[in-house]
Amino acid sequence: MTEFGTSDPLLEIYLHENSQLLEQLEQSVLECEEANAFSSAAIDVIFRIMHTIKGSSTMMNFDNIAALSHVIEDLFAFIREHQPRLTDYSALSDLLLQGGDFIKLELYKIRQGDSPDGDSSLLKSSIHRYLEELKRRHAGQRDAPVSEEDAGDILDEGTHSIAQDAHLKAILFFDDDYNMENVRAYQVVHSLKELTEHFSYWPEDIETNPDTAEMIKIQGFQLFFRNGESPETITAFLSQAPCLKHLEISETTPPAGMSESASPPDFMPEPSVDVRSADDLSSAAEQPPVAPTGHPTLPEETQSLAKPSVSTSGTQQSSFISVNLAKLDELMDLVGELVIAESMVTQNPELAGLELEQFRKAARQLRKITGEIQDKVMSIRMVPLVNTFQKMNRIVRDMCKKQEKQVRLQLVGEDTEVDKNIIEHISDPIMHLVRNAIDHGIEAPGERAASGKNETATLTLEAKNVGGEVLILVRDDGRGLNREKIMERARERNLIFRDEAEMSDRDIYNLIFLPGFSTKEVITEFSGRGVGMDVVLRNIESVGGSVSVDSAAGEGTTISIRIPLTLAIIDGMNVKVGRSRYTIPTTAIKESFRADPGSVVVDPEGNEMVMVRGQCYAVLRLYERFKVATNVTAMEEGILIMVEQDDQTFCIFADQLLGQQQVVVKSLPSYIRKIRNIRGLAGCTMLGDGSISLILDVGGLALTS
Amino acid sequence: MTNPTTQLQTEQEDDTQAGKFLTFLIGTDVYGIEIRYVTEIIGIQAITEVPELPEHIRGIINLRGKIIPVMDVRLRFKKPFRDYNDRTCIVVVELSEVSIGLIVDSVSEVVQIAEEDIVPPPDLKAGNPQGFIKGVGKVGGEIKLLLDGDKLLQHEEAEHLSHL
């Protein structure tokens, strides 16, 4: 076995899981940083992530990753245990993000088949130092005099912090159909012991007293947690209990001075007013700004309850599975075949003219189901943009720190869904646009204040469905594009091929998409190598999208990206040339018409043109272009289809139109693509009768016509 | 990690397939291709022409939902084109993860050729212009030309350029 081949399924899983965990980690850290508090739920999540990474890395013998995650785990074990008051959250987030980046890099190396040889000792020692500092400060805190109101809550040394004082109470009701509630309860207790030891339950004598079954039936089985575990963990754990009918979880603050041995039934019949569900609590708890160390008046409870709502993502993921995309592609191919096979059966020529009422009924039912399956399979491939958008949080954060700018990232419509293949193509362009916006567009806080703007700039990433397309906007409220500077630069680089007086603002702004254009004088780490915008444009165009830019000086810039919902299905017009069929994307078609013999002219170089409403358009004869034998060569026998792409309009000459339909786009076989890249063909598709039609790429045809 | 059972199966399959060749006719010449490359054999069917390709790549076909290119082996060997008839077959092969259909005049049989009966091809430029033949097999006095699949698919740079 090769040492690190990604063919190893265990390794595949390891890489996949850990990259997901790291993404989750990054998200939690950024959320916490924004809230300026590490909630106990978030601390739990981070701790668990690190614990998992440590475990799996040890198993896979990636010692350096394991070592680093161990150190971070230690740090969070301490934070979880003692909930120290922190003043400097950004130092903690920096350490975490650096740690995450280190592991990410190592994972990348492993994926590439290299050995993970990074050295994290520097990072580890700074985490150690941070932990020592925390411990020192924590010890100081505890020695410091405690304010009167808190005194009663302090339990024996160090074992309890405030978070754990908030007792968690769970009431379980079991299904009525099963008796022996006491046995079920015992099962729960038994399995709970794997999770935590710090809990008690009522009734207590379930093992020995069969009468408790009746009590549980009426009052429920009650569990009281005293330590550590977050409500989320407990809920997730308990909801898996067998035969569970109903589960109530509530957080209660016990009377002051209650000792560990206090028997739970003492406060069992709690008045319902006091029982607030964990969710109520979290939404009710307004997060106050974090108090500086040693501020005595802040009740400690508020800190421990700091925004438990921020990281619910950790527990939500259980309802998703990840599927290999290749399997989905196969499934889609199969469904495509199914649709064709279905029409081959129901439209079978041998059935023509027969009166088959029952058969037609059954055939209709079959068609309905196959159609639904096709829709479902398509929808499986659709994924929301939320991950792509959230990755930008990190970029914005890093750039703001480096460039000392203040930017707030606003996400709108991030649940808009796009085909998985497209997401892969637009992630980089969006990242580039975000970097560009911060680097070039958004001014430094001082400059913003001077021009009367809010010092914190807003960068909006917005996605929405517009017809069959998705529109993604990257909008900043920075200084806007500088028309003069763009023109100057374009002249310098000889990028202007038109009369300058004729150029509109829009034309000028679009110059930034030309290769080799960059207006930034200083090249920075993040952007400005002058390969940016044209690469963005090319990436977007490769998935059939378009990019445009709009800007107002001093008010900001908006870059709009239009992308198709899916690459897999397009609306197309089928045309016939000789024995071949071609599909023209409907989005490119303006009109189709039969030419009058008099309207066609030929220029001295032999280029044909057709006159339509006083405008001249070039004519492209498909049979000539693709060297196909056909009988229809006279202009008045065939049909002209006027198409437009990228401001180029011309007419395609074909034998006849066959009709419009939605087609599933397939790429040409890789072997053919390897032989040569055929300009003018975007792919192929299968028609209802099983024959193949070639999909025309109007842009490519225009280039070579 | 390889599952030991599947490994065993593939080994067994390799064993049963070793030394077996599918033979087919181009004109009067008998060619053979290792059976392990062959996926299936189908009759000739409607071929969709794709423009701008070399002459021997006839186009693409729809093989039960999968679109594969088809190559006319006759034209690949620079022999004159012959109209397809009901004996014409498409041999679907998978070579280095590429599925491709080979159009041949007719398919004859599967033969076992022992390794000692295979001799290297004569190094004559005329007889084996592009190295398509990797060996010559003798079966009961008959000569079968054994094809090198990878060479068949390869496109020499010069040939490639001449079409541009």
- Total separate domains of chain A: 5
Q: Say what oligomer this is.
A: heterodimer
What is the alpha-carbon Rg of chain B in Å? 17 Å
In the residues of chain B, how many domains can be counted?
A: 1
Q: Can you describe what's shown?
A:
Chain A has 705 residues and is an alpha+beta fold. Chain A contains 24 helices and 23 strands. In chain A, the strands form five sheets. In chain A, strands 15-19-20-18-17-16 form a six-stranded mixed beta sheet. The radius of gyration of chain A is 33 Å and the shape is globular. The model of chain A is unreliable at 1-5, 144-166, 254-317 and 521-530 (pLDDT under 50). By secondary structure, chain B is of the alpha+beta class. Chain B has a single domain, classed as OB fold (Dihydrolipoamide Acetyltransferase, E2P) (Beta Barrel), CATH 2.40.50.180. Chain B starts with a helix and ends with a helix. The model of chain B is unreliable at 157-164 (pLDDT under 50). The A-B interface holds A 1, 8-10, 333-334, 336-337, 340, 579-581, 625-628, 666, 668-672, 674-676, 678, 680-681, 684, 686, 690-694 and B 1-2, 46, 48-54, 57, 60-62, 64-69, 98-100, 153, 155, 160, 163-164. Chain B: Residues 18-158 form the CheW-like domain. Chain B: It comes from Paenibacillus mellifer. Chain B: This is Chemotaxis protein CheW. Chain A: The modification Phosphohistidine is found at residue 51.
Which helices and strands, and how do they pair?
The complex is a heterodimer of chains A (about 700) and B (about 160).
Chain A: H1 9-35, H2 40-59, H3 63-82, H4 89-111, H5 121-143, H6 148-151, H7 162-165, E1 167-174, H8 181-195, E2 199-202, H9 212-219, E3 221-225, H10 231-238, E4 244-252, E5 276-277, H11 278-284, H12 300-304, H13 313-316, H14 325-346, H15 357-380, E6 382-384, H16 386-403, E7 407-412, E8 417-419, H17 420-441, H18 445-450, E9 457-466, E10 469-476, H19 483-492, H20 505-510, H21 532-542, E11 546-552, E12 556-564, E13 569-577, E14 580-585, E15 589-593, E16 600-602, E17 608-612, E18 615-621, H22 622-625, E19 639-645, E20 648-654, E21 656-664, H23 670-675, E22 681-686, E23 692-696, H24 698-704
Chain B: H1 4-17, E1 20-26, E2 29-34, E3 38-43, E4 57-63, E5 66-72, H2 73-76, E6 89-95, E7 98-104, E8 106-112, E9 118-119, E10 133-139, E11 142-147, H3 149-153, H4 157-162
Parallel strand pairs in B: 2-11, 5-7
Antiparallel strand pairs in B: 1-2, 1-8, 3-6, 4-5, 6-7, 9-10, 10-11
GO molecular function (chain A): ATP binding; phosphorelay sensor kinase activity
Function (chain A): Involved in the transmission of sensory signals from the chemoreceptors to the flagellar motors. CheA is autophosphorylated; it can transfer its phosphate group to either CheB or CheY.
Pfam families (chain A): CheW, H-kinase_dim, HATPase_c, Hpt, P2
